[in-house]
């Protein structure tokens, strides 16, 4: 169980997050919605350990996440929007780097694990700079999953991807949640709402929780 309790964050005089609170249970995909600059990425940065809140608490499996950085490195996978890959390293080089800190096997996962589901093998020996946007996103997700995290943070994973790649990634999210894991999904894509058990709308630093089947018109009216 993930419990975000009264998280606040400001940069200089701008209040980005203000007393944001919500829970996410095992097996849930939670959609994070809001206009650009509303704090979606900031919240994901805080959860991943790349930023710290001004106040608030985050409990993960009953432990204070902010005081247990080892949890953030082993139990949480984070996929940034811009695919932070090394241009001259191959996909296999990236996987070896991320798998080096785990006891898991790249070969086993390519055969019948999540690397097979993500269809990594066809571009395994291509350099990152030669990969399409969809391939880069698949590789970024694969790296984030190397340690078998139970919480996956995805920052607009289907932005600028073709329809087939978008659906492949959505199908993997469904499978990942079906295995009892949790996803926080920052998105602008209406099609992603079908993946979610609830939606967290961020606006002016505040969070509002809505059912995943809330009419889009109502969501737009709130965010406008």
What's the structural blueprint in terms of helices and strands?
Layout: E1 2-11, E2 14-24, E3 29-33, H1 40-48, E4 55-60, E5 63-64, H2 69-74, E6 76-79, H3 91-99, H4 106-112, H5 114-117, H6 133-144, E7 151-155, H7 163-178, E8 182-186, E9 198-203, E10 206-211, H8 216-223
Parallel strand pairs: 3-8, 3-9, 6-7, 7-8
Antiparallel strand pairs: 1-2, 1-4, 4-5, 9-10
Helix pairs in contact: 3-6
Task: Describe the 3D structure.
Belongs to the ABC transporter superfamily. Residues 2-223 form the ABC transporter domain. Pfam families: ABC_tran. One of its GO terms (molecular function) is ATP hydrolysis activity. It is a single chain. The chain is α/β, with parallel strands linked by helices and 224 residues long. The protein folds into 2 domains: 2-75 and 149-223, 3-Layer(aba) Sandwich (Rossmann fold); 86-148, no CATH class. Helix content is 32%, strand content 27%. The chain is built from 8 helices and 10 strands. It has helices at residues 40-48, 69-74, 91-99, 106-112, 114-117, 133-144, 163-178, 216-223, and strands spanning 2-11, 14-24, 29-33, 55-60, 63-64, 76-79, 151-155, 182-186, 198-203, 206-211. The strands form 2 sheets. Strands 6-7-8-3-9-10 form a 6-stranded mixed sheet, with helices on both faces. Helix 3 packs parallel to helix 6 (133-144). The longest helix is centred in the C-terminal third of the chain and has 16 residues, at 163-178. The model has no long low-confidence stretch (mean pLDDT 91).
């Amino acid at each position: 169980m993930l419990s975000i309790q009264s998280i606040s964050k400001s940069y200089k005089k701008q209040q980005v997050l203000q007393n944001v609170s919500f829970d996410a249970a095992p097996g849930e995909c939670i959609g994070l919605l809001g206009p650009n600059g509303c704090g979606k990425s900031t919240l994901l940065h805080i959860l991943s350990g790349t930023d710290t809140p001004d106040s608030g608490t985050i409990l993960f499996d009953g432990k204070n996440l902010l005081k247990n950085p080892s949890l953030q490195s082993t139990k949480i996978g984070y996929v940034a929007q811009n695919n932070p890959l090394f241009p001259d390293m191959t996909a296999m080089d990236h996987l070896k780097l991320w798998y080096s800190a785990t006891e898991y096997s790249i070969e086993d996962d390519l055969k019948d694990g999540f690397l097979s589901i993500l269809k990594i093998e066809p571009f395994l020996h291509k350099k990152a700079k030669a990969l399409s946007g969809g391939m880069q996103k698949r590789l970024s997700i694969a790296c984030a999953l190397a340690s078998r995290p139970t919480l996956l943070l995805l920052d607009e994973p289907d932005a600028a991807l073709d329809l087939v790649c978008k659906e492949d990634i959505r199908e993997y999210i469904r499978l990942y949640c079906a295995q009892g894991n949790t996803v926080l999904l920052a998105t602008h894509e209406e099609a992603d709402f079908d993946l979610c058990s609830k939606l967290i709308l961020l606006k002016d630093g505040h969070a509002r929780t809505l059912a995943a089947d809330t009419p889009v018109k109502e969501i737009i009216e709130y965010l406008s």
